[in-house]
Specification:
With 161 residues, this protein is α+β, with helices and mostly antiparallel strands. Helices cover 22% and strands 40% of the residues. The radius of gyration is 15 Å and the shape is globular.
């Protein structure tokens, strides 16, 4: 099975039944998804490491709203909750970005950082998210970026004004 097909199945089963999404694009490790009402779109991928049974699968998204404020907001669902007060760092190629974290989730911190993250994702082959868990152990969630630029563009176009 193609990697994007696995992600698409994950994405479709990961959303609540009342939030059905349709696939706009899928290639490489990324898919672009749009909500049924057409108001929300996202480019999404799951981490390279599969989660253990009954554990949360780490995944990353770039979110866009048709009529709202999100125009490429980066979000990552971490494989473990980050220790309170610790930094969550996103590395894309040689560029580093500090994310705003709360529990097992982290986000970009504004439009300028979002644009820089998207620009970096267009030219790199992979990215990683590093944090420390409650016990102070460092963990890394890794992602491939094959298909990311096209998925980001498809999600942005799907929710363009």
């Amino acid at each position: 099975m193609r990697p994007w097909a696995v992600w698409a199945m994950f994405a479709i089963t990961a959303v609540p039944a009342n939030a059905a999404q349709r696939i706009l694009f899928a290639r490489g490790q990324w898919a672009a998804l749009q909500s049924q009402d057409g108001r929300h779109c996202q480019a999404a991928s799951r981490s390279q490491r599969n989660a253990a049974k009954d554990a949360r699968q780490a995944h990353a998204t770039f979110a866009f709203d048709a009529m709202g404020p999100r125009r490429g907001e980066f979000h990552v669902a971490l494989s473990r909750a980050a220790r309170s007060g610790s930094s969550v760092m996103l590395s894309i190629g040689s560029q580093m970005f500090q994310l705003a974290a709360r529990g097992a989730d982290a986000w970009s911190v504004g439009p300028a950082q979002e644009a820089a993250i998207i620009a970096a994702a267009r030219v790199a082959t992979g990215m990683r998210v590093e944090a420390r868990d409650a016990a102070g152990r460092r963990f890394i969630d890794r992602y491939l970026l094959a298909g990311a630029p096209s998925a980001i563009d498809a999600a942005a176009a799907g929710c363009s004004r």
